[in-house]
Amino acid sequence: GAASATGERGAASATGVSGAASATGVRGAASATGWRGAASATGWMGAASATGWMGAASATGERGAASATGVSGAASATGERGAASATGNGCVAMATGFYGRVMGEIGNAVVCVERKENGDISAILSAVVDGKTLKPGVWYTVKNGEWVEVQ
Fold this sequence. Notes:
The protein has 151 residues and is mainly β. 0% of the residues lie in helices and 47% in strands. The protein has strands spanning 2-5, 11-14, 20-23, 29-32, 38-41, 47-50, 56-59, 65-68, 74-77, 83-86, 92-95, 101-104, 109-115, 121-128, 140-143, 146-149. Strand 15 and strand 16 (146-149) form a beta hairpin.
């Protein structure tokens, strides 16, 4: 199945196998809970969640949030101040916009980009959350090429 919410504060949900959900309005929410589902929130402060097996969640708007809670899922936040989390099993969270942040549970991977004022990339870090270098359930960003906890 496919679901789409394009208006302000809309919500979209696809719960079947290979479903797709898209919320493009302001503060929209998209959720894909089925096998290989995809959820995309492109509006301002949108949220996308992929909870199924091998799902993908993408938040491209400003202050968007993407979450991968299923098995082998991926969460991507590309907008300014976006947040991506990987709390499932074997998931990846990636933030590539200005002032992005990532969070993961033990065994999940996180990737975060630091940008210069002009938008050029100044640093990119990736790691597997191990409980030592990166703590589970803690938000991180990259500053001056180093992992920094978000307060």
